[in-house]
């Protein structure tokens, strides 16, 4: 580790530098991510916005060592003094789900349909921590409480099909945070949800970020989602970050034509143009009423 990396490691969070992801052969590479920099800071939500196919998900997957077979990477993903791109599969297994966790668009992707919620939460915990069954059950209940799943004592006995989409996403978030990770990557976490429950899940992410000091990467094509949540926003286009900055700078004074078009396309973008932010960068809205549907 050089001096600069040692300083970053001491600061915590995660730093992506010059990340590239490509497919195809070495002779004919198809670049997907073309040398991007992103900082994930404890207690902050970093938004990664951009249209479909711009490389957002590949960026998130690279951070977890979950890129599809055939993907080639370059650059660095520095976490705790190590470049995750050079980590062995064993090291990645130890990190993934415990220190760097991911939530996907479809919560059922991280839940087994035939196992009770309690079984899945405690199994996941006990794979990674030396903890007896009773203590694991208590942690599962406490984590479900933290993500505002009603009646956790009953919920742990139920199966995924017995919950609504919004509740399932909360349970998937519980799976992601039960081992107390430092980094949470949320890839389109509300895209599949009914609009009436989206806001509640987003507020939950904000409050977890604030309460647990999580460094969150929020990936979404929907700039509207960022507008109420992210501290900083990076806008990605064709594998490149074309604009980056504090949320209200990016939304109110976009420098790039592409970002301006994204902002203009929002159905109701007036709040971002107000002098007073609709939601403070300190996550004020997150502390408001939180529906749990
Ligand atoms: N296994 C693969 N081989 C080759 N190209 C791939 C593979 N998987 C994904 N891609 C390409 O990588 C590009 C970026 O995909 P990515 O999923 O990161 O985009 P995105 O910005 O997250 O968009 P979306 O919101 O649609 O998921 C896409 O053009 C896709 O076709």
From TrEMBL:
Keywords: ATP-binding, Cell membrane, Membrane, Nucleotide-binding, Transport. GO terms for molecular function: ATP binding; ATP hydrolysis activity. Residues 274-293 are annotated as: Disordered. Pfam families: ABC_tran. This is Peptide/nickel transport system ATP-binding protein. One of its GO terms (cellular component) is plasma membrane. Gene3D superfamilies: P-loop containing nucleotide triphosphate hydrolases (3.40.50.300).
């Amino acid at each position: 580790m050089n001096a600069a990396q040692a300083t970053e490691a001491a600061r915590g969070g995660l730093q992506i530098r010059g990340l590239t992801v490509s497919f195809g052969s070495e002779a004919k590479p198809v670049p997907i991510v073309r040398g991007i920099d992103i900082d994930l800071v404890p207690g902050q939500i970093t938004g990664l916005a951009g249209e479909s196919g711009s490389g957002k998900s590949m960026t998130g997957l690279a951070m977890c060592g979950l890129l599809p077979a055939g993907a080639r990477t370059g650059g660095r993903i520095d976490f705790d003094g190590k470049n995750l791109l050079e980590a062995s599969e064993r090291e990645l297994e130890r990190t993934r789900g415990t220190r760097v966790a991911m939530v996907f668009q479809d919560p059922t992707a991280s839940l087994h349909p035939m196992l009770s919620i309690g079984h899945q939460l405690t199994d996941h915990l006990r794979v990674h921590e030396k903890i007896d069954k009773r203590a694991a059950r208590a942690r599962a209940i406490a984590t479900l409480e933290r993500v505002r799943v009603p009646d956790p004592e009953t919920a742990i006995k139920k199966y995924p099909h017995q919950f609504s989409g919004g509740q399932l996403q909360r349970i998937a978030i519980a799976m992601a945070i039960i081992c107390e990770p430092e980094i949470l990557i949320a890839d389109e976490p509300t895209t599949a949800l009914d609009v009436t429950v989206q806001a509640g899940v987003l507020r939950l992410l904000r409050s977890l970020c604030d309460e647990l000091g999580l460094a969150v990467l929020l990936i979404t094509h929907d700039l509207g989602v960022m507008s109420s949540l992210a501290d900083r926003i990076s806008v990605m286009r064709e594998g490149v970050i074309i604009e980056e900055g504090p949320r209200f700078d990016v939304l109110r004074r976009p420098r790039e034509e592409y970002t301006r078009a994204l902002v203009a396309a929002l159905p109701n973008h007036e709040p971002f143009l107000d002098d007073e932010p609709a939601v403070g960068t300190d996550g004020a809205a997150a502390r408001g009423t939180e529906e749990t549907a």
